[in-house]
Amino acid sequence: MRILMRIAYNGLNFNGWQYQEEGRTVQGEIESVLTSIHKTFTRIHPASRTDKGVHAREQYAHFDTELNIPAEKWAFILNSKMPKDIAITETFQVRDDYHVRYDSKGKTYRYSIYQTSKNPFYNGLKAHIDKTLDIEAMREAAKHFLGTHDFTSFSSAKTVIDYKVRHIYELKIEETNDGLDIVITGSGFLYNMVRIIAAYLFEVGQLKRKPEDTLKLIEAKDRTQIPLTAPPDGLYLERTFLNEQELLEYLEEK
Amino acid sequence: MRILMRIAYNGLNFNGWQYQEEGRTVQGEIESVLTSIHKTFTRIHPASRTDKGVHAREQYAHFDTELNIPAEKWAFILNSKMPKDIAITETFQVRDDYHVRYDSKGKTYRYSIYQTSKNPFYNGLKAHIDKTLDIEAMREAAKHFLGTHDFTSFSSAKTVIDYKVRHIYELKIEETNDGLDIVITGSGFLYNMVRIIAAYLFEVGQLKRKPEDTLKLIEAKDRTQIPLTAPPDGLYLERTFLNEQELLEYLEEK
Asked: Which of A66, A70, A64, A68 is closest to A99 using CA atoms?
C-alpha cells in the first residue's frame, strides 16, 4: 500500500530535506521513524527537495508499506514519534504507481522578510532587510515573471535539468505588520529560482534595478546578470497542488 | 567605564546563558565578540542566568572597557557582530560599582504554551499542551502565590541558596489566540521556580490538583510534593526592573 504524507517542518535546524551521512535532515528523521516501525529500511519520496534552512508548510512525501494499518491512522502514529520541528498533518492512500513529484501540478513558495530592528525570535524564520523597499516598483517588476519563460537567468548554474521553461501563475507582494512576503505560484521551480527572484525583487525595491528591465534579463538567459541569491531564512514551501483541480481552485479564489 | 547592555535572545540553539567549555552559550558568544574588539579577555555579568533553551526579551549584562567609545554607540557595534539569535538593543554607562544582579529590583517571566495541533514553527518558542485547561481554576490557584513566601516547595532541590523567601507581585494567566501565557513578576526567582510553578498550574488546569491546596503546598516547604518541571520551551525572561521606580511603574499600570 502506498501512503502519501502531508508534512510541515521548520528548516532551521535541518541540513535540508535530502538524506546525508552527516547532519540532521528531514528525510533522514522521517525515514528513521518509518524504518523503526517497519523493522526494515523504508524510503520516502518527496514532492520536492528543500535546501538547508528552508521550511515547508505543505510538503508531501510517500512510502510503501505492507503493514495492516489504515492509511489515515499513519498521521497520528508518525506525528507522535516525530521531533518537535516536523509535523505529519495528514496521511492517505494513493494508487501504487502514484509519484507525487511527477503527479503534482505546481507549488506556491513564500519568502518572508521583516524590516523592523533585529529580532532574535525570527532567527531562521524571516530574513532581515532593514532598508526601505519600494513595493510598487517590486510589484511592477513582478508582473514580468508571469507566464511561460525560460528561467536560466533566475536559476543556479548548478541546475542539472536542461529544460528550464516554467510557467508562473502568480507573483504577489503582500505587506505584513513588520515587513513583506513574496508569494509565488508556478508549475515548478528550478534550483534556487525562488531565492534568486526574491534577491532580484529586493534589488528592485532598493531602486538598484529598474522594473522595466526584468523581461530583458529573463530573455538574456544569463545567470551572471543576476548574481544574488537571498538566504534560506524566510523561504517556505507553502503549498503543493496535488492535482490540476487544486491549482485551478487556488487561482480562481483570487 | 562600565557599560550595561540590554539583550534579547532566542534560547533554542543555546546551552543556556552561562559559559561552558563545550556548547554554544549566550555569555560565550557575547564575550567572544567583546574579547575580539578589546583584544583582551572581557568578562560580562548578567542580571540572571537562564537555562538551556530559555529565552530573554529583556536580559541585562555589563562589562568594563577602557576603549574611548561613547556608551550608547556600543549597541550598534555589538549588534552588528552578534549572531542572528542575539540582539543588543541598548547600551548605557553605569557607575563603576554598579552590579545589575544586585542593583535590579525584580523580574517578569512569561511562560507561553499553544494548544492547537502540533506546529513545527513553535519549536522551542512555545510549549505544546493539547489538553483543555480550566483557566479559572488556574487563576484561583495563582492568587495563592502572591505575596511573600518561602518557595522551597517550588524550587529545584539543586538550589544552592539557603534563603528561599521571595515576593511575588503578580501572577497572571493571559489567553492568547492559540493557547495561554503565564506571566509572573517577583522580587527574584529560585532555580527552576517559574517552570515548577508553571507545571503546577498546568496540573491545576487539568484538574489534577485543587486550587485551594496551593497555600498548604507552599507552606509544606517540600519539593517532593511538586515533582514536575515544565520544559524550557516557552519560558522568557520578559522584563528586568533596573530600579524600584521601574517596578512600581509596571505594577501601577495595571
From this structure: A64
**Gyration radius (Cα) of chain A, Å:** 19
Beta partners for A173? A182
Grid coordinates of B167: 515576593
Say yes or no to pLDDT of B161 above 90: no
A51 is catalytic: yes
Angle at the Cα of A166 from the Cα atoms of A160 and A171, rounded to 5 degrees: 125
Pick the catalytic residue from B51, B85, B134, B150.
B51
Q: Is A128 on the interface with B (CB under 8 A)?
A: yes
Spatial distance between the Cα atoms of B43 and A252, rounded to a whole number of angstroms: 60
Residue B152's pLDDT band (boundaries 50, 70, 90)? Answer: very high
Contact present, A50 and A63 (Cβ < 8 Å): no
B155 contact A CB<8A = no
Q: Decide if pLDDT at A11 tops 80.
A: yes
Can you list the domains of chain B with their CATH numbers? 2-102 (3.30.70.580), 104-252 (3.30.70.660)
How far is CA A141 from each of CA A191, A203, A212, rounded to the nearest angstrom?
21, 11, 7
Write the pLDDT tens digit of every residue in A55-72: 999 999 999 999 999 999
Q: Cβ distance B225 to B151 under 8 Å? A: no
CA distances from B228 to A19, A172, B192 (A): 37, 48, 10
**Whole-Å CA distances, A91 to A26, A88, A107, B50, B127:** 17, 8, 19, 40, 25
Q: Which residue has the cell 519520496?
A: A45
A222-235: string of b/e by CB count within 10 Å (b at 16+)? ebeebeebbbbbbb
- Average pLDDT on B103-114 reads 97
Rounded to the nearest 10 degrees, the angle between the axes of helix B74-81 and helix B26-38 is: 120
ipTM: 0.90
Closest C-alpha among A68, A84, A85, A61 to residue A242: A61
- B54, B82, B85, B110: best mutation site toward chain A, by most A Cβ within 10 Å? B85
Look at residue A158 and tell me whether its pLDDT is greater than 90.
no
E strands in chain A = 2-9, 45-46, 55-64, 86-94, 106-114, 127-128, 147-150, 165-175, 179-186, 235-241
| A199 within 8 A of A235, measured Cβ to Cβ | no
Nearest to A120 by CA among B91, B17, B87: B87
Contact status of A80 with chain B (Cβ, < 8 Å)? no
Q: Calculate how close chain A gets to B234, using CA atoms only, in Å.
A: 12
